[in-house]
Design a protein that fits this description.
Elements: H1 5-19, H2 23-53, E1 62-64, E2 84-86, E3 93-97, E4 102-106, H3 111-119, E5 123-125, H4 136-141, H5 149-152, E6 159-165, E7 171-174, H6 181-187, E8 196-206, E9 210-218, H7 221-234, E10 239-246, E11 249-258, H8 273-279, E12 282-286, H9 287-291, H10 306-312, H11 318-327, E13 339-346, H12 350-360, E14 366-372, H13 382-385, E15 392-401, H14 409-420, E16 423-424, H15 434-440, H16 443-453, H17 462-468
Parallel strand pairs: 1-2
Antiparallel strand pairs: 3-4, 4-8, 5-8, 6-7, 6-8, 9-11, 9-12, 10-11, 10-14, 13-15, 13-16, 14-15
Helix pairs in contact: 1-2
The structure holds flavin-adenine dinucleotide.
Length: 474
């Protein structure tokens, strides 16, 4: 079980007590609970700001969170030996307002805890990354996608306000409208290089207890993309993602919230979710089980052998596997590590990209997540959007391709994406030159915010952190 810790238990006990009260007194009691949380939060923020103010010298720092990191584990990642800023107690849900459908929570709250708490009000976060212990702060600082992204974009696109502690210990409240609007936008995908996210305010939507899934099968990438485009235009389902088992066997998973289910499946032990999409035509899950259906691995489920799954399948969730990789970092391969990465490709370019991919990589299955172009993000270079007409991207994720033929597949992917106008997230191994990197990411915007929030480069800059330090390069 994920360790929820004392603040979460306290908040949960308070919420249970709240439910026992008469409706008229609930609002006042909710107010008192929120005020208690805000007081504790203010004390934590003061502590972290003070710790940052007292840092001396050029040594970069990293964060210590309670939940495991979901960056792809890399041999020798320098952040492992950095001095730490401890934010491990930023794990409290401060407020759920069921009327306004808004939640305020500390950055270290995990999605599994968040979904459990909001479902009690018949609500859920709008974008729920599929692994249980991804945190809301990590989802904004890294990158987050899932099966509601075809409608809403990333989790950050559902956020209304961030509280950010700068490297100099200033506490800024950033919204898309206030004087810190550029900071608000640039914090997404900055991988913690612009400050520490301490509190987030974000929207919720109504949920139902179950999700009904329908699996549509397509024999070609062209037909598959046409189906995705059609659903994107109609917006007639709640969830859309899919598995490309092979380019001739593509499954589109369409989900809708429902009040009742004739049966429910769960994929948290023996059965492997992505494989079920190949065999089944439909499925039903409890809403929380749906959100975390890939938690035992997306397409990289281990172990696979039936006997080992029966013995260990319940134990080896994504959190434990990543924690193990973190502890046994010295066992990871430095040269030609297995490829786990995800790329955003404009919908119109997917057929061309997939022909190339099949020839050069030839590795399946792929996870496929349609992602709406909600807005032209400030953190991407202006030229990247120039001439792009697509309103939908497709995020394609490779998990654990292991080819030892001496080719650098990460670099191969970077070059192809540059050619077709795609982009990859930075959670994996990155081989860009500095000039190339800043031709994709928006340097003027990044530098403007960096000068304000981390003038002495305490958190490293984005290029150094994701392309060099992550692979042990100084
Ligand atoms: C195997 C695997 C599967 C994945 N599957 C999915 C998926 O299904 N859906 C999805 O959306 N994503 C997925 N991801 C990507 C994941 O969402 C991102 O890597 C995300 O950033 C992880 O968040 P985290 O809470 O684990 O943060 P971490 O991994 O701990 O941190 C990510 C980055 O954000 C920074 N950071 C973290 N918290 C803060 C904070 N409070 N303030 C400032 N900076 C901070 C860290 O310094 C780090 O640079 C997957 C990644 C892996 C490796």
């Amino acid at each position: 079980m994920h360790d929820r810790g004392p603040p979460f238990s306290a908040a949960r006990a308070a919420l249970s007590a709240l439910r026992a009260l008469a409706p008229g007194r609930r609002a006042a009691a909710r107010q008192r609970v929120a005020e208690g949380g805000q007081t504790r939060h203010a004390e934590k923020v003061t502590r972290v700001a003070e710790q940052l103010r007292q840092r001396r010298g050029p040594e970069p720092v990293s964060l210590r969170k309670r939940a495991v990191s979901h960056m792809v584990p890399k041999r020798g990642d320098l952040r492992r030996s950095d001095p730490k800023i401890d934010i491990s107690d930023f794990c409290e849900i401060l407020e759920i307002d069921p009327i306004k459908k808004i939640c305020v929570a500390e950055a270290g709250v995990t999605f599994v805890d968040l979904v459990a708490a909001t479902l009690r009000h018949g609500l859920v976060p709008i974008v729920v990354p599929e692994l249980k212990t991804i945190t809301i702060g990590g989802a904004v600082s890294g990158c987050s996608i899932e099966s509601m992204s075809f409608r809403y974009g990333g989790f950050h696109d559902t956020c209304l306000e961030y509280e950010l502690i700068t490297a100099t210990g200033e506490v800024l409240v950033c919204t898309p409208e206030n004087e810190h609007a550029l900071i608000f936008q640039m914090v997404h995908g900055a991988f913690g290089t612009l400050g520490v996210l301490s509190r987030l305010t974000f929207r919720l939507i109504p949920a139902k207890p179950f999700v009904k899934l329908t699996y549509e099968k397509y024999p070609s990438i062209d037909a598959y993309m046409a189906a995705i485009a059609g659903r994107f235009a109609r917006q007639d389902v709640d969830f859309m993602d899919g598995i490309i088992h092979a380019s001739s066997e593509c499954v589109l998973s369409l989900g809708e919230f429902v009040d009742e289910a004739p049966y429910t499946s769960s994929y948290d032990w023996y059965k492997i979710y992505y494989e079920s999409t190949r065999e089944r035509r439909e499925d039903y899950m409890r809403a929380a089980d749906y959100f975390f259906r890939y938690d035992r691995g997306v397409t990289n489920v281990r172990p696979r052998a039936p006997i080992l799954r029966a013995l260990l399948g319940w134990y080896l969730n994504s959190s434990r596997v990543l924690r193990l990789a973190e502890r046994m970092n010295w066992l990871l391969r430095r040269d030609n590590p297995p490829v786990t990465l995800d790329v955003f490709v404009p919908l119109s370019k997917v057929p061309e990209f997939m022909r190339w991919y099949e020839r050069e990589f030839g590795y399946f299955p792929l996870w496929c997540v349609p992602y709406r172009r909600v807005r032209d993000y400030e953190w991407i270079a202006d030229r990247w959007y120039q001439g792009m007409k697509d309103q939908l991207f497709v995020d394609l994720a490779i998990y654990g391709m292991d080819k030892r033929d001496g080719r650098n597949y990460h670099r191969l992917m970077e070059e192809k994406l540059a050619e077709i106008g795609g982009i990859k997230t930075l959670i994996s191994h990155n081989f860009y030159s500095e000039a190339e990197f800043w031709s994709l990411w928006n340097k003027p915007n990044y530098d403007a915010v960096k000068a304000r929030t981390d003038p002495n480069n305490l958190f490293r800059d984005l290029y150094t952190k994701t392309c060099r330090a992550a692979q042990g390069l100084r």
